[in-house]
Amino acid sequence: MKERIKSLVLAALVVASLVQSYFLIYRLPGGGDSIVTSETNYVKTENMGQERSIEELIFPDQMIIHMGQDKHTVFYPGNTFYQLIYSRLKGRTFEDFQRRNVQSVHWDQIRKESPGFELSFKEGMPVALLQRVMRLGTDTLFQGETINRIAIYTTPNDTKAHALFFSAKGDVVYEATQADLTVQDVQQHVDFGTSWTPYTLMEGGYYIPAQALDAIEADVPTGQFTVEQMQRSLFFDPSMTRNIREKDGSEIYTDSKRSLQVKQFQRWISYTDPAAPPAGQSDASKDALSAVDFVNQHGGWKGRSRMMLRSTDNKTQLQFQQYYGSFPIMDSMQFRFGTINMEMQQETVSSYERSLEYLNEGAETKKSIKLPGGDKLKNLIRKVAGENRKVVDVYPAYRTSAMEDGLRLIPVWVIRFGNGEETTVS
Question: pTM of this prediction?
């Protein structure tokens, strides 16, 4: 009997000790003021924007149709014919790549005389990433390349189509000697351009429309992520951050390792994580995959964006440029919007920049306008280029203008110079 009483007393003491420990640790006499955050609240990230796969972010900035006799037209992302050609091309197979010197191809002559089409990837896309959206065979030399242009064309008396993949370095081109595209396939795609706006091939290798280009100006209402949302998304424990107010009105939130700078006037955030990456050379493809995963988990995506990247030995710089309709939205230092900018080192995010503001598409008001073409556009280009600056690209985009309850998206022509600088005309 005594042993049974001892056991009951011991059990009661153990229970009392556990109850006391619970209240001492959690300090919950009234059900609140906990000093230990639950695991769910500690690591929770909010569903702020949509998730995207990397395949959704890889597409050409423009598609040029060559019709022979120096006749051309240009399709932009979102155009029906652009989407049709690109979706068909992603189902074709390209194999057995032959490496050639770029001078041996005579590309300037081909695009003037031979029917075909051309996909532009501006800064270039690593083959390892292109293989996620196209069926490209593996080849040791080709695998390590970055491609900025794909050209598919036919020549008289040929029974098969030619497929060229241009290196972004500008010195070599790879021809896929095995491509399951027939001459009839290429001609059908070329025919899509015959009734479209004609474009003129200029001396710098860029194209401008021979007549005014139809465009849409839109007033789009916007929403806004809160600073608290970004804090919860980017910091492991937001309660451990401290706030520093800068003289320029911006605020910095830091947990002593990472920092989040918020420029309230521009509604723009810059997140930096100086943690040292592991040793070794950067892999642009792996960095890009990690960057997309990071955005999916820390803010997500609003609207459609196209990925651009630039890689060095130890880091990869990425920019995800947002589109409205067929045109990209230009970022400017005066008003930051339209891009997500990232720097990756060994698959680790070292910096992450984006706008807190986002477009609420579907509730906008639109009106049709004309962007200048032909001689009028040539004169505008000549005026801004002057005597010394070489023009390498001209493309349509949207310039943003802030309104009380949203953004006005104004169509403009963007002129890019050989040194990388850009300016706009309209």
Answer: 0.86
